[in-house]
Each structure stands twice: as C-alpha cells, then as structure tokens.
C-alpha cells in the first residue's frame, strides 16, 4: 500500500485514505508513482491500504475514492427504511419509485401509498389507475385515502368522478321528479307490453334491451375503451337502471351517498311492485265508484263483492302481475350486478381488503358488515329467487295446460309467448346466460384477458344454443337474436384487439436522436411498430362502430316490422263484436292466423268480413288442407338424432339409386344411337300384324316407356294417379274409317330383333291390330 512519486527517494510513502495499492511479492522493486482510488462500491478510511472495503448491499458512493462508510448510500431503485447511509438497502416495492440515497419511496403514477397493519408501507394500484398521480396526489375531482371518493362538485359514475355541471339540471327536486317519471313510464310501458297480443309482436324490443345491457357490461370490464365510446356507454347504462346517471350526490351530499344509491337500486323492484299494486287498486276503486254512482249496487260491500267477480278487474290484476314479471326480467342484470358487487373485495396487502367497486369502503369493516344482510337478502330474493319463481310459474302453467290454451297469457305472456311451445322454458336459459355474464364481469377482474375470454365463451355458447334451438316463433326474430349475439361477440373480440394494440404502443418511446446509430435505428423500428399499433386501434374502433351500426339498424327494421303488424292487428280487431257473435268465424280466423304467413292473413281477415257463407266454407276447407299438409310434414320430420340419421341415410340411398337409374338410361340411349338406324316402310297391301298368341312373350315396351321405367321405378311412383288416355273422337266418320283402313292394310316388316326402333314399331302395330281396344 505504498507509492513513490519522487525520483531518487530512499523509501515509499503509504497510500492515502480512499486509495490503495496491491501488495508486491518479496524482492519486487518496481516503481509505483500513484495509488488506485476505491471504486464506487467501496471505501477506505485509513492510509496504506492494499484493498478497499466493500459498501453494504445495494449501496454505492457518489464519487471515487470514498473514505467513509457514511458515503455509501442506496442505489437508484433501492431504499432503506432508516433513511441513513452506510446500511444495507432493500429493493423498491412494486408500484413505488425509489431515487436512491436517503430518499424514501413514493408512489408511482397510478398507485397510492398506504400503511398496512404491520406498519409496512404498501403501494396498491388505484382503480382506475388514472385517478392517482405521481407522488401520491389525487387527480382533479378525487379525494380520499385511495382517491376513491369524489370531491365536491363531482358525482360518481362507475369508478370515475364527473363534474356536476354536465348534468344540466340545477335542482335536486327536478332530478328526483325526472327519475321518478322515467321509472313510472318504464313500468307503464311494461304494462302495455304485458298484453298477450302485444308481447308476441314486440319480441325485438326485449332482444334489443338484452343486447344493450350486454354492451353496458362490456364497459365494466378491466380493459381500456376508446374515449369516443365513453358517452355511448353512458347512454346505454340507462337500460341497466343505473341511477348514477342522475348524479344524486350533486344534490344530496352525504358521506355514504354511493351506498345510498346502491341501496336505492336494489329497492327498485319493490317500488315497481307498489306502483303496479296502486294501478290495480286505483282501477278497482274507479269501478266501485262507477257502480255506486250508477246505483247498480245498494251498498259498498255488495260493490266490492261484485268487483271480485268482475272479469275486467281480474284481467287488470293479472296483467299487472305480468307487467311486474316482465319488469323483474328486465332488471335481473342490474340486480345481479349490484348484489355481486357487495361481495367482491380486492386485496391491498395481507389483511387489508377494499370493495372493488368502491375502494373507499374497507371490506369486513363495520360499514361493510352493515350492508351484508342486504346483500344476502338480495342474493336469495333476486339472483336465485327470480329464476326459481319463473320456473315454478311456468311449470305449474305447463302442467295445467294453461300455456297451450292461452289462459296464462296475461300473467306469464312475457316469458313464453314469444317462444315456440316446445321451448316454453327458454327464458330461464336466457336468465342463466345473464347470470354467467354478470358473474364473469363482477368477479374475474384480476386478469383482464381471462375475464374477456370467459365472457367470449359465454357469448359463443349462447350463439350455438340459439342457432341450434331457434326457439322464437318468428323466423325473423330468430335471425335477429343470432345477429345481436354475434354482434356482441365481435364487439368484445375487437375490444380485446384494441387493448392489445394499445399496450403494444405504450412500450415504445419517441426517438430524439437524429444521428445514424444502432440505438436510433432500433428506435425507428419501434416507431414503425407503434404506428402499426395505432393503425390497428383505429381499425378496431371503426369495426366496432360498423358492427354496432348493423346491429341497431337490423333491430330497428324488425321492431318497425313488428309494430306495423301490431297496428294492423289493432285495426283489424277494432270491431270484436262481429267475431264474438259468430263462433265459426272466430275459429276460422284462428285457423288462418296459424296457417297463413303474417304478411297475408291481415288481407284475408278483411276479406272474411265481406265474404258469404259458401266462400267462407271453401276458404276454411282450403286452410284445413294446408294445415293438414303442414302437420303431415311435421310428422315426417325427425324427432331425434337417431331418426334424423336414419332419414338422411335413406335419402342418400334414394339419391344413389336415382343417379344409377339415370346413368343406366343414358347408357341405353347412347348404345341405341350408336346402332344402325333401320328405315321401316309401311307396305300398303301387306297382311296385318296379328296379336301374339296366349302365353307368348310380351313385346318390348316403347322407348318412352322404357325411359320412364328406368328413371322412375314403380316403387317410386307409388301413390300417383295414372290418367287413361282419351279415345279419339269418332264424330268425323270419314276420318275414323280412314284410320281403320290404315290399320287393316298395314303390314309388318321383319326387322332385327335387337333393333330398338323396329321393336317399337312392331309393338305399336301389335297394339293397334284389329279386334283390340284403341285405348289398350
């Protein structure tokens, strides 16, 4: 550890602190004019050292030649909880930024800093990440420990906060009246759609509502959507009864306003039930008041007793019940989503969990435990109880044959009238599809790709089941349902492509260096990949727009078509008395509505009004024949897979046999044409050809008959009616005598036995011999 910077010195000087010189072997007298400084990862506090001391783990010095342990500080990306130097450092936690030295870690962009129960600093990711800024600050409009609460002047929508000025309604009273009015209008609309004749003709409306609710679920996925679609999804959420659109926090500010909104959404079915009950009681009260006013009853008790027997009141009560069932069906997606959200928590650290949909609420705390009874009741009554209720009602109606005779149309028309009779249970399958989609969206939030893949699988299974069953009565409705399911599947697939391209584009940074270097060339290649990712994002966005445009345009066409049919039916059924007085005409109308296409039976119904009895009988006979033909066709169809395979095999064999017969006939024709043609000349004075004696071989059939027998064997012509040829008219006796003379004077010419043309002539002469019938 010595040096000698001066020439001619008798001894060497020791190396100063912070430097060292490796020891030499004995006898080594080579000159060393300087010492080596300690590296950034070491230090030396004394003179004459032959080596430097290493700094603690994950530390380094700011300069070369450090002379103290205190100069060893944490490297970038590491920290020490003691905030001192000269001690080992630890790796920076995930979600934090460590600048090294004595600086403590702070949260990166998209993360927040918390302290766990073990007094350990944790940095969980914010939900959504853009609400947390670098350094632990909340974005504009967000407050709270996790930046999960909305500041004053903002309201919560989903997991984001929006400005209250975007609502354009300044009074809370006006907003409350608006929400109440929309809810009442929806319930009244469901009451109108609950009529059996209307429910059957408005299937496309319910399909469109289900499609829009599915699209609204897509906005809750853990993926990034284009900014242009934010307003679009906000408009769609109204079909999922999202009261957050009203921004009640802007008018009724309270610490638990989010929880209050959630509870209000879960009580919407109770409000709808109360509304329908009030409609029934109001209608019943009006009937009682009318009867008392017209003095049809002496007392109020007798009026109530007659009301219980009133068909109009009972029909109104059943229709209100049917409207409430349709409302539950439409609200099922929202009810299941809000119920599941109260059970879904995400881990921040060991022992620390927060509610995923509202991170400001810590799971299993006193506030959360107060909501669990409501969540359990909602799970039993709504999520499980609604499908069980629907199945029980449909099963009881099916056993009592109320589904077939139509007596359950007012109560359960929204559940089964749109389906074929064999698929009266299909609405339960639709509820199961909604349940699976909501469960995937609510719980599979940790892995975005897995969540999207599971939802794609649910939609694909729904497409396969729909295409196989085709459960709806109208073929156009089956086609619309298939198109909407396929559109939802494509939208989700394009959204996955968009997110993949977005993540790819964020991996590259802009190129600042204009020099031609290897790093710059790599950066330029990355620039091309980023542009390709941006182009992919644009293409995916426009494809989503095109798919949605096709879906909504097709739905609008079908809805217009069904509304037009409904208006025609209302116009046609304007005078029900004529049909009620004539029972035969009522049955006839039901027959042609079942047999004829919907496009035609409106005109037929108008014709029935002006037709006479004989015309109606003939029309009824025609419709009966059509109906019987259709029923026979249904009976011939395969009832199961085994019968379908058997019929397919029989058809294949028939086609092979037919092709074989056709080929055989063509081969005969070709062989016949290749033979030498024989000219047969009739001799005027030759002896007539007599009929063959009894027991002789029959003559060969003519060419046409042989071709007909080859193409259509007798077993294939079974059931056909053969029409006998008419005898020639004998009014012109001269022509008849000339024909007889030709017959008597015709002579036969012996020809080759294997010539087909001569055989035909001989057979015809034998048939037209004297004494034989002309129509033989």
TrEMBL record:
Q: Does the keyword Transmembrane apply?
A: yes
Annotated Tyrosine-protein kinase ephrin type A/B receptor-like domain ranges read: 32-72
The record's section on CDD domains has: TNFRSF
Q: Which keywords does the record carry?
A: Membrane, Transmembrane, Transmembrane helix
Region called Disordered, residue ranges: 717-746
Q: Where are the transmembrane segments?
A: 175-193, 205-225, 263-289, 371-394, 449-469, 476-498, 539-561
A Pfam family matched in the record: DUF7630
Biased composition annotated in UniProt, kind: Basic residues:
719-730
Checking Gene3D superfamilies in the record gives:
Tumor Necrosis Factor Receptor, subunit A, domain 2
What are the DUF7630 domain coordinates in residue numbering? 123-164
Keyword Nucleus: yes or no? no
Fetch the InterPro entries from UniProt: CRMPA-like_DUF7630, Growth_fac_rcpt_cys_sf, Tyr-kin_ephrin_A/B_rcpt-like
The protein's name is Tyrosine-protein kinase ephrin type A/B receptor-like domain-containing protein
């Amino acid at each position: 550890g010595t040096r000698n910077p001066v020439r001619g010195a008798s001894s060497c000087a020791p190396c100063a602190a912070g430097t060292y010189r490796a020891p030499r072997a004995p006898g080594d007298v080579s000159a060393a004019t300087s010492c080596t400084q300690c590296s950034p990862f070491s230090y030396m506090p004394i003179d004459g050292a032959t080596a430097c001391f290493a700094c603690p783990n994950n530390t380094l010095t700011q300069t070369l030649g450090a002379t103290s342990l205190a100069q060893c500080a944490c490297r970038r990306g590491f920290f020490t909880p003691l905030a001192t130097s000269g001690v080992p450092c630890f790796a920076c936690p995930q979600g934090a930024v460590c600048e090294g030295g004595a600086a403590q870690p702070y949260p990166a962009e998209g993360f927040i800093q918390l302290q766990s129960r073990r007094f350990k600093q944790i940095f969980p990711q914010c939900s959504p990440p853009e609400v947390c800024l670098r350094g632990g600050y909340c974005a504009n409009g967000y407050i709270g420990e996790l930046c999960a609460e909305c500041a004053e002047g903002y309201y919560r929508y989903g997991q984001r906060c929006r400005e209250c000025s975007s609502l354009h309604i300044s009074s809370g009273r006006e907003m409350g009246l608006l929400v109440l009015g929309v809810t009442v209008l929806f319930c009244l609309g469901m009451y109108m759609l609950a009529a059996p004749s209307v429910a059957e003709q408005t299937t496309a409306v319910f399909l469109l509502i289900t499609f829009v609710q599915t699209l609204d679920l897509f906005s809750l996925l853990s993926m990034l959507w284009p900014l242009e679609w934010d307003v679009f999804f906000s408009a769609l959420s109204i079909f999922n009864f999202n009261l957050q659109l009203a921004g009640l926090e802007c008018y009724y500010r309270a610490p638990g306003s989010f929880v209050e909104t959630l509870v209000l959404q879960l009580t919407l079915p109770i409000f709808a039930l109360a509304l329908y009950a009030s409609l029934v009681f109001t209608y019943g009260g009006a009937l009682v008041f009318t009867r008392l006013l017209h003095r049809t009853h002496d007392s109020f008790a007798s009026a109530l007793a007659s009301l219980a027997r009133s068909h109009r009141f009972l029909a109104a009560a059943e229709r209100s019940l049917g409207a409430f069932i349709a409302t539950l069906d439409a609200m099922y997606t929202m009810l299941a989503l809000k119920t599941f959200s109260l059970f879904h928590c995400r881990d921040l650290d060991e022992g620390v969990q927060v509610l995923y949909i509202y991170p400001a609420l810590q799971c299993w705390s006193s506030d959360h435990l107060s909501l669990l009874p409501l969540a359990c009741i909602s799970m039993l009554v709504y999520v499980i109880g609604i499908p069980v209720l629907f199945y029980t009602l449909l099963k009881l109606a099916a056993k009592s044959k109320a589904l077939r005779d139509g007596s359950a149309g007012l109560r359960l028309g929204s559940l089964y009238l749109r389906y074929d009779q064999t698929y009266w249970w299909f609405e339960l399958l639709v509820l199961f599809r909604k349940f699976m989609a909501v469960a995937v969206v609510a719980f599979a939030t940790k892995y975005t790709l897995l969540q999207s893949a599971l939802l794609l699988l649910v939609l694909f299974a729904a497409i396969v089941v729909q295409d196989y069953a085709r459960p709806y009565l109208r073929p156009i409705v089956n086609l619309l349902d298939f198109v909407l399911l396929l559109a939802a599947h494509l939208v989700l697939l394009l959204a996955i492509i968009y997110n993949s391209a977005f993540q790819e584009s964020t991996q590259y940074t802009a190129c600042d260096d204009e020099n031609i270097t290897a790093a710059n060339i790599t950066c330029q290649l990355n620039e091309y990949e980023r542009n390709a990712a941006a182009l992919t994002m644009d293409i995916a966005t426009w494809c989503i727009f095109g798919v949605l445009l096709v879906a909504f345009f097709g739905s609008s066409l079908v809805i217009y078509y069904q509304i037009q049919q409904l208006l025609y039916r209302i116009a046609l059924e304007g005078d029900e008395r004529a049909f009620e007085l004539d029972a035969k005409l009522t049955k006839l109308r039901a027959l042609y509505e079942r047999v004829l296409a919907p496009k035609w039976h409106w005109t037929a119904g108008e014709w029935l009004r002006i037709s006479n009895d004989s015309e109606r009988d003939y029309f009824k006979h025609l419709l009966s024949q059509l109906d019987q033909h259709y029923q026979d066709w249904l009976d011939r169809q395969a009832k199961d897979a085994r019968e379908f395979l058997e019929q397919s095999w029989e058809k294949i064999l028939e086609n092979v046999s037919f092709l074989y017969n056709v080929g055989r006939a063509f081969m005969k024709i070709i062989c016949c044409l290749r033979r030498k043609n024989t000219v047969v000349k009739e001799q005027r004075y030759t002896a007539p050809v007599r009929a063959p004696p009894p027991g002789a071989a029959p003559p060969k059939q003519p060419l046409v008959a042989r071709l007909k027998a080859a193409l259509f064997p007798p077993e294939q012509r079974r059931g056909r009616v053969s029409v006998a040829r008419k005898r020639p008219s004998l009014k012109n006796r001269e022509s008849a005598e000339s024909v007889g003379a030709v017959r008597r004077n015709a002579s036969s010419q012996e020809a080759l036995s294997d010539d087909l043309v001569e055989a035909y002539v001989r057979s015809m002469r034998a048939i037209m011999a004297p004494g034989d019938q002309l129509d033989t």
